[in-house]
Amino acid sequence: MEKTIYIDNKPVRLKSTAALPKRYKAQFRRDYFADLFKIAKVFEGKDSKEMDLKHISYEDLSCLDLDVLYDIIWTLAKTADKSIPEPLEWYDQFERFDLMKVLPMVGGLISGSVSQSKKKVNDKDSSSEELFTAESFSLVCKQSGLTSEDMEDMTIGDCLDYVQEYIDSHRKGTDGKANVRRASQSDFDNF
To answer: CA-CA distance, 112 to 115, in Å (whole number)?
Structure first.
């Protein structure tokens, strides 16, 4: 997923791929998903138009680390353009960086990249208490056959869809054999 926004009247390309969590962790030494979930808790239940400090309670504001937002935006920019400089140097090129104007434009890019589009995972299949981290995300992608190059071209949601399809296709039935279904005419038509 890619988009161009304007910051301080300068066009800035942003891109979200499945490699975003790894790039974020490599740069900032923090887990992307853990930071994203903290931010999501603050903005829970708000649409992108309500992502404004006016709509955040004082309790939520105490949980909000603005550095995380700046770091996510830089990582989105770095994913789109590998030649951009280190974060502080990159931010120095802007005289003004209105985070509250940028945030609604970026919110859709982040949430769109994380959401699964094809099908919903059963609640009973996803009841684990384990924390979802960049490492666990990378591990399940690798176990299902995705490469780093594949992840550069896919969103996080695409990867999660792929992993779920992989799991479903390799799940064994009650008779011990893998669940296999015959291709229907609609499967052929979809090619």
So the answer is: 6
